[in-house]
Amino acid sequence: MPHVTDIEIIFQNIRRKAPKIHCLTNPVTMQDVANLLLAAGGSAVMGQNEKEAAEITGFCQGTLLNTGVPDEAKINACILAGKKANALRHPVVLDPVGVGASAFRRETIKNLLAQVHPDLIRCNQEEAAVLCSLFSDRTSPRSHGGVESALRLTESDVCSTAKQTANLFRTTVLITGAMDVVSDGENTQLLTGGDSRICRITGGGCMLSALCALFLCAADSPFDAACAAGTLWREVACCAGRRTDATHGGIGTFHTQLFDVLEEKIFNTETDL
Ligand SMILES: Nc1ncnc2c1ncn2[C@@H]1O[C@H](COP(=O)(O)OP(=O)(O)OP(=O)(O)O)[C@@H](O)[C@H]1O
Ligand SMILES: Cc1ncsc1CCO
């Protein structure tokens, strides 16, 4: 896990650079993703028409390929944006939402991964297992949870899956769930804490993927960025939960508090949360 001062340096870089992220995302969580990036000190440009995707990538600093609610044109736009970002050496984050949910998703995301190199894959346990099965002889999970994970891996299995995914795609991976694991194939880091109420709002993972894209624009390596973003998002959920309890709030309060706490952590590090 990055040292506190390393996280502070990432925060300073974000505040100074205000990175703009080209987000190819999904209509379910699009507004949360845009607001999260603004709360965290960056900004979003949503553009997923094939005719403009690469052009928009060119003036942004990072690229988020969230394949939720896919169609052919959207995946083609992801490929165009991803290739352009690779050519410019801009960081690319892939969030392969529900990749196991249909043959169409498996085929199109496999095609995307054959043409675009993500610097970070942020996914849940089931999505990681399905990705591995696409490019190895690992068997695909037999039942799937749609966009949620039907898998509940042990700590040692999730660590070995993270390492396998990182090695297979020569990248860094952040697998989320009851515990998170970051691996670049050599280093593996477990992240714990948080608040399980995050599973009762949609987009907890989509927002984290956007935060990772922002942190990749401000950290020394994808591994440091993923550890810092994953750790921060769990701390944010924990503080949001405490504040929700203190005001006897429900899941709507928790959702709103995620944005308030994130903004305070990045812009007012002196605040006692
Ligand atoms: N049981 C849990 N307890 C605490 N935090 C959790 C738990 N499960 C997931 N999280 C956290 O929720 C966030 C989202 O992870 P999750 O695995 O739910 O992503 P996802 O399935 O891609 O989400 P979505 O599809 O809703 O965007 C991560 O920060 C993760 O650490
Ligand atoms: C529910 C849902 N379906 C596609 S994307 C999404 C948001 C959480 O990933």
From TrEMBL:
Keyword Transferase included in the entry's annotation: yes
EC number: 2.7.1.50
Binding site for substrate: 46, 203
Protein name: Hydroxyethylthiazole kinase
Entry cofactors: Mg(2+)
GO MF annotation, one: magnesium ion binding
Gene: thiM
Lineage, top ranks: Bacteria, Bacillati, Bacillota, Clostridia, Lachnospirales
Coiled-coil intervals: none
Record SUPFAM superfamilies: Ribokinase-like
InterPro entries: Hyethyz_kinase, Ribokinase-like
Any one GO BP annotation for this protein: thiamine biosynthetic process
Binding residues annotated for ATP, in chain numbering: 122, 176
Role according to the record: Catalyzes the phosphorylation of the hydroxyl group of 4-methyl-5-beta-hydroxyethylthiazole (THZ).
Catalytic function, reaction form: 5-(2-hydroxyethyl)-4-methylthiazole + ATP = 4-methyl-5-(2-phosphooxyethyl)-thiazole + ADP + H(+)
Keywords assigned: ATP-binding, Kinase, Magnesium, Metal-binding, Nucleotide-binding, Thiamine biosynthesis, Transferase
Involved pathway(s): Cofactor biosynthesis; thiamine diphosphate biosynthesis; 4-methyl-5-(2-phosphoethyl)-thiazole from 5-(2-hydroxyethyl)-4-methylthiazole: step 1/1
Organism: Blautia obeum
